[in-house]
């Protein structure tokens, strides 16, 4: 790629960042890094009515947690700032005026009441009201009014908007990296508002001006912006600017595969749709986050990458560097990507195995008061034995509690299966063997107990099941000999003696 790659993620700070937005940011990041380019965060906060306190910082924190921080942003500005659209608002009026001067835009003085009347009138006739070439000369704007009338209205302080003048009887030939060639009949396009009566630009104008001034080379955004592509291409043409290349990512669909994934789907099916936990500043409502639910950022990035993109191989596990090397917009699918909550857990289980046991031990210890006085190195060793069965750190206690506290009860169904006639005598012999082992190690335990079982021609289940039940309280956990070694000789004997006492 010869051009200098500069891409941007441009969210609105109207609430928490949905994982669909994180996926868009990720694809922009991967594309930028693949081509030694720049990944920019631009906060599009011109809609002050929908602005939510704390949302901008949430977006920044989310990208940082995911490991895909912006190279340029409001908190890390480059030479193309400001990076908040609200701080750029003085720029846009001049560009709107430029479009009016070139005949590509016009003043429109129609009141909201007038426009509402036309909409309802069209609905009553089974039609849809579109403000464009077929009716604009019948409405109140600078195309239907004389220059004097227009000046008088502006001088009198009448509210107006500036609309783009869509061409008539033309066919636009557009190109999208993911979707290929697109043809648009301009007769079906409406004359979008570019500048509002409150003196603020609409998304369309501000977006195009900012992308041009920030020298954005590729616009990689969600499918929901595809209907705006025609207008954006026309704006670039009207300004005489070179348009960036466009790529519209597929929707992330509900687990059923029908409809766009929403927060409601997560609430209903029990999974988060936001990267970090979010507390609504107005209502106090708390929305779950992947971080707080125990997902690793590497897992989240890996599963998000596969929502709409496929490397074309059987490989599914990719670290960030591998994703950067493999990523290709031409391998992004057009069709929506179904979100699979079970697959996200599968990824997290994989990344659990790659985590450092000592670091996991610190996290685990911090979550359970029962572990406050236990050596973190011991906890780390326990985690090494049980984490292959874990998907989240929150799974650890159920998988390992018997390493820290002796069982106080025994699974009823397992007890009936394990405790038979002669079990008390068998366990008493196990105690004798354990007490006679000087080198108390996993290997010694395994050798001595298995040799005794074999030489006495006892079924392994008759020994190992009640022994496990004595140590754990259930027929679960890692290798019995690992458990015995970890809890030590005296605790092993004590637990087996407890069971023998119960069997009496």
UniProtKB/TrEMBL annotation:
Keyword Calcium: no
A Pfam entry, by short name: tRNA-synt_1c
InterPro entries: aa-tRNA-synth_I_cd-bd, aa-tRNA-synth_I_codon-bd_sub2, aa-tRNA-synth_I_CS, aa_tRNA-synth_I_cd-bd_sf, Glu-tRNA-ligase_bac/mito, Glu/Gln-tRNA-synth, Glu/Gln-tRNA-synth_Ib_cat-dom, Glu_tRNA_lig_a-bdl
Residue span(s) of domain Aminoacyl-tRNA synthetase class I anticodon-binding: 374-500
Motif 'HIGH' region in this chain: 11-21
Keyword Plastid found: no
Spans through the membrane: none
Record field: catalytic activity: tRNA(Glu) + L-glutamate + ATP = L-glutamyl-tRNA(Glu) + AMP + diphosphate
GO MF: ATP binding; glutamate-tRNA ligase activity; tRNA binding; zinc ion binding
Family assignment from sequence similarity: Belongs to the class-I aminoacyl-tRNA synthetase family. Glutamate--tRNA ligase type 1 subfamily.
Protein name: Glutamate--tRNA ligase
Organism listed in the record: Algibacter marinivivus
